[in-house]
Design brief:
The chain is of the alpha/beta class. It has helices spanning 16-29, 44-54, 80-85, 96-100, 106-118, 131-135, 139-151, 156-159, 180-197, 200-205, 216-223, 240-251, and strands at 4-9, 36-41, 60-63, 90-93, 122-127, 163-166, 208-211, 230-233. α5 packs parallel to α7 (139-151). The protein binds 2-phosphoglycolic acid.
Length: 256
């Protein structure tokens, strides 16, 4: 059985004290979850401060990005060991804003995934097609090539530490959500790619999240859909009530 996951991607929002207060209040509400694993991904500046709050809880912390080198002259960058020592277990890699605003290539993302895995971080690997790619029937080609690049050479014991998030670029922050059928189709494709490369067991145990304008009003129809094991949430993760409502919806589903 796969565990439900809800990950919060705060992006470039919330200053240090605000992050702390928000997490303090939210974490009290999340203490009794039985089936849902929560991962909070605040900005770098808040990580260490928040990690102190989450120490004795099952809520995990993740970075939103990292560099693939261990250290050195890379002004403005953060390494995997810096994330680890700030209390992170996870890191979001290949987010569409990294791919399309900061021009990160499949190759750079692959290097980051390898660096995260070799430094004991669990990557949340994002894939997703742009609107034009969907409209011209290229969705599966794009997903296939992002998947193949990300997962080439990843060994079976490492894949068990990965989480995948399908985030159609056209649905991120736009208010447009993929229909459950659209999401399920692509997430099924990803599961098939995992099965082809590894085995049915590995594919069955891989958490595949959906991200893109998830809200309390659409969370139910998405989470009850085959192949959706949870969410990566941007906008709605910044508002305590909205995030908590979505978590509660996910908590009601036990994924077979
Ligand atoms: P959104 O962002 O929920 O605001 O669409 C999702 C994401 O970018 O991970």
């Amino acid at each position: 059985m796969r565990q439900n996951i809800v990950a919060a991607n705060w992006k470039m929002n919330k200053e240090v004290q605000e992050s702390y207060n928000f997490t303090k209040s939210l974490s009290k509400k999340l203490l009794n979850l039985k089936r849902t694993h929560i991962i909070l991904c605040p900005p770098f500046t808040s990580l260490f401060y928040i990690s102190e709050l989450l120490k004795n809880t099952s809520i995990a912390l993740g970075g939103q990005n990292m560099h693939y080198e261990k250290s050195g002259a890379f002004t403005g960058e953060i390494s995997s060991s810096m994330l680890k020592s700030s209390g992170c277990d996870y890191v979001i890699l290949g987010h569409s804003e990294r791919r399309h605003i900061f021009n990160e290539s499949n190759e750079a993302i692959k290097k980051k995934i390898d660096a995260a895995l070799s430094n004991d971080l669990k990557p949340i690997i994002c894939v997703g097609e742009k609107l034009g790619e969907r409209q011209s029937g290229k969705t599966s080609e794009v997903i296939r090539s992002q998947y193949k690049s990300a997962f080439s050479d990843i060994l079976e014991y490492e894949i068990n530490r990965c989480v995948i998030a399908y985030e159609p670029v056209w649905a991120i922050g736009t208010g447009m959500t993929a229909t459950p059928e659209q999401a399920s189709e692509v997430q099924g494709l990803i599961r098939n790619l995992i099965e082809e490369q590894y085995s049915k067991n590995v594919a069955d145990s891989m958490p595949i999240l959906y991200g893109g304008s998830v809200k309390p009003t659409n969370a139910n129809s998405l989470i009850e859909t085959e192949n959706i094991d949870g969410f990566l949430i941007g906008g709605a993760s910044l508002v305590e009530e909205l995030f908590f409502e979505i978590v509660n919806i996910v908590e009601q589903y036990s994924i077979e």
